[in-house]
């Protein structure tokens, strides 16, 4: 198990990570979801030993890693831009790690050849070993980078936005492959990404990094359906969040009062989250009984193939998103600039204490 305990890392006035604690179990695919600038790369660099925390500890299998040189950590790193050696071919890029690793470097040419070929086979690059790394596709370069890391048999592989440089089709295919390769090797992957869909597809577990710490870690389906706080909900790009204050047992927002699904402390700030696909629309005054609702102006629609998005704005300026699935359409024909009632089952709403970011 990889364990981070109370990690803080500052750059001048910027606090990139603040008392972050997190556990990554063995033999698992863990996706770390965070916005750009949230500290994802910093966290990976601290685990790999490219930099050290200002406070806190990194543990791997009960052994303290912080302070240990990078090459003695049993941690592999796949960089965002792959960082291959441009003057070496595919085989030599991968074999490099075996010849030069700190522990037990291999000197025997036949052993290096066997191990390198085995790993190239694993990542689907058999037959490409003599190619220059400039003469293969982006997806293949990605696999060379992965092979070069895996061949050194790390306990944990850190992947920094590994699919970011690939086009959409390739990205989908590499998702599958990364999962399959990891399973065959039985090694732990910690994959950081800014894409919620990528995190949810890839991770056996998804951790959300926000405000310098892990705000929630859970299995993807659980995280998506039940984010534990507003920060996690915001990162899933599927929840509308309405802020307000608890008044007379309801949430008083800039767009009216909403019933609370559970009691919260009177007078305190709170936030309500309602998923994009759980809001229905009707004309004002026609809200079906038993539904909670608020009013908002229809701003624009967006057709996305199988789903359509509708954007609304509340009186206090909050943007609200509603998604419609074309197989089961439930939105009426709407006119831009007109007010509608947005209604939902009270049980569909989640509430969180606090004012949020
Ligand atoms: P991410 O990878 O999630 O985009 P980073 O870990 O690169 O985020 O950066 C987190 C924060 O720390 C950002 O505000 C960034 O500007 C700052 N930061 C990262 N590295 C440095 C550095 N070497 N010097 C100064 N600030 C840095
Ligand atoms: Mg980064």
Tell me what the structure shows:
With 357 residues, the protein is an alpha+beta fold. It is 24% helix and 35% strand. It has eight helices and 20 strands. It has helices spanning 40-48, 90-100, 109-122, 138-150, 168-185, 196-202, 220-225, 230-235, and strands at 2-11, 14-24, 29-33, 55-60, 63-64, 75-78, 156-160, 188-193, 205-210, 213-218, 239-247, 250-253, 256-259, 269-275, 280-282, 292-303, 307-313, 319-325, 339-344, 350-353. Strands 6-7-8-3-9-10 form a six-stranded mixed β-sheet, with helices on both faces. A five-stranded antiparallel β-sheet has the order 13-12-11-14-20. The protein has a five-stranded antiparallel β-sheet with strand order 15-19-16-17-18, with no helix packed on it. Helix 2 crosses helix 3 (109-122) and helix 3 (109-122) packs across helix 4 (138-150). The radius of gyration is 24 Å and the shape is elongated. Bound molecules: adenosine-5'-diphosphate (ADP) and magnesium ion.
């Amino acid at each position: 198990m990889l364990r981070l305990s109370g990690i803080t890392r500052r750059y001048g006035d910027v606090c990139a990570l603040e008392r972050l604690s997190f556990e990554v179990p063995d033999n698992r695919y863990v996706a770390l979801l965070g916005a750009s600038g949230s500290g994802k790369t910093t966290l990976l660099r601290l685990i790999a030993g490219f930099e050290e925390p200002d406070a806190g500890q990194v543990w791997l299998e009960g052994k303290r890693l912080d302070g240990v040189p990078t090459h003695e950590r049993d941690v592999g790193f796949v960089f965002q831009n792959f960082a291959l050696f441009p003057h070496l071919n595919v085989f030599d890029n991968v074999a490099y790690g075996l010849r030069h690793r700190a522990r037990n470097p291999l000197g025997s040419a036949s052993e290096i050849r066997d191990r390198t070929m085995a790993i190239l086979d694993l990542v689907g690059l058999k037959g490409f070993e003599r190619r220059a790394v400039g003469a293969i596709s982006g997806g293949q370069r990605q696999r060379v980078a992965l092979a070069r890391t895996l061949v050194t048999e790390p306990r944990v592989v850190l992947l920094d936005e590994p699919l970011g440089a690939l086009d959409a089709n390739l990205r989908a295919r590499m998702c599958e492959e990364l999962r399959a390769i990891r399973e065959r090797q039985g090694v732990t992957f910690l994959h950081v990404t800014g894409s919620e869909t990528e995190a949810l597809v890839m991770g056996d577990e998804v951790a959300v990094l926000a405000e310098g710490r892990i705000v929630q870690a859970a299995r993807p389906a659980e995280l998506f359906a039940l984010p534990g706080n507003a920060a996690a909900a915001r990162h899933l790009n599927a929840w509308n969040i309405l802020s307000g204050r608890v008044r007379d047992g309801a949430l008083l927002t800039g767009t009216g009062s909403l019933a609370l699904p559970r009691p919260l402390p009177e007078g305190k700030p709170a936030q309500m989250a309602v998923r994009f696909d759980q809001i229905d629309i009707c004309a004002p005054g026609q809200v079906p009984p038993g539904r909670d609702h608020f009013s908002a102006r229809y701003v624009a629609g967006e057709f996305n193939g199988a789903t359509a998005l509708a954007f609304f704005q509340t009186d206090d300026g909050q943007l609200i998103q509603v998604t419609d699935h074309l197989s089961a359409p439930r939105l009426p024909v709407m006119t831009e600039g007109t007010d509608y009632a947005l209604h939902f089952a009270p049980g569909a709403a989640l509430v969180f204490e606090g004012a949020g970011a």
